[in-house]
Amino acid sequence: MTMENILLTIDGHVATITINRPKQLNALNTATIQELSDTLDDLNGNSEVRAIIITGSGEKAFVAGADIKEFASFSIEEGKRLSAEGHNKLFNKVENMSKPVIAAVNGYALGGGLELAMSAHVRLASDNAMLGLPEVSLGVIPGYGGTQRLARLVGMGKALEMICTAGMTNAGDAKSWGLVNAVYTQEELMAAANKMASKMAKQSPTAIGFALDAVRASVKANEGGFQAEIDAFGACFGTDDFKEGTTAFMEKRKPEFKGA
Fold it and tell me: Are 57 and 92 in contact (CB under 8 A)?
């Protein structure tokens, strides 16, 4: 399989996926989401792989968000489809993998980048990492599971603070809130991720698969929230605020929202 936007290495029982768009700060576009989806399918069916690490290339960003210019002109229905396809192709797929997935967050994890990290089972961060969901500054909401997974991890109050201010938090605060498991220097991060993945890979893969299923069962009752997110995300695409937010972003100016 030829891939233009990601790199894959397999060392023993550990696979490492590196999102490789450094000039775009590893932003997620349609092609990258598809490549990640296809790669995860292959790894899930590979009995030799027992743990997976996802990270970004370079030292600036894990994933700095979605590629906004791809969807700035979308209609409501196109927005809903964008969200639903992202859930199915990537974000839900990561969460529902039969083997543990570690996100090694090596810098900015914003918007879709933080949503990808939250889909993973464990998050390790570098000490320069900055995490946030800035979507409301564009006149839209998180559309790849962010409204649901962030509240699970940090509680409703902190999740609403992060989402409604569109602010970023540093790695230390993210750890204190339970958003990341541990913080390392940039130089130590991948070694720490590999050490954890290797330890996971030594355990019973069958038992780990059952454990992942059992832990996921604790949140299955609330899956309707994901559909509510998809619907609300799509509805944003029909607003003047969305048009203003995305236009302002591409014109590199501050938006002037009218609340319509």
Answer: no
User: In this predicted model, what pLDDT tens digit does every residue of 188-207 receive, in sequence order?
Assistant: 999 999 999 999 999 999 99
Q: Which domains does the chain have, with CATH numbers?
A: 6-188 (3.90.226.10)
Q: Which two tokens stand for residue 211?
A: 């454990």
Residue whose tokens read 């800035």: 134
Provide mean pLDDT across the span 67-81.
Answer: 92
CB 234 within 8 A of CB 83: yes
Catalytic residue among 95, 135, 244, 256: 135
- 28 touches 112 (CB < 8 A): yes
115 is catalytic: yes
Judge contact between 97 and 17, C-beta under 8 A.
no
Catalytic residue among 4, 70, 78, 115: 115
Comparing CA positions, the residue from 111, 89, 83 lying closest to residue 31 is 89
Instruction: List the structure tokens of 40.
Output: 């995860």
Angle CA 223–178–210, to nearest 5:
50
**Is residue 256 annotated as a catalytic residue, yes or no?**
no
pTM above 0.85, yes or no: yes
Any idea which residue has 């962010």 for tokens? 146
Tens digit of each residue's pLDDT (9 = 90 or more) over 38-70: 999 999 999 999 999 999 999 899 999 988 888
What pLDDT, on a 0 to 100 scale, did the predictor assign at position 1? Answer: 63
Q: Are 125 and 174 in contact (CB under 8 A)?
A: yes
Q: What pLDDT sits at residue 260? A: 82
CA 46 to chain centroid? 23
Q: Which residues of 199-220 are buried (b: 16+ CB within 10 A; e: fewer)?
A: ebbeeebeebeeebeeeeeeee
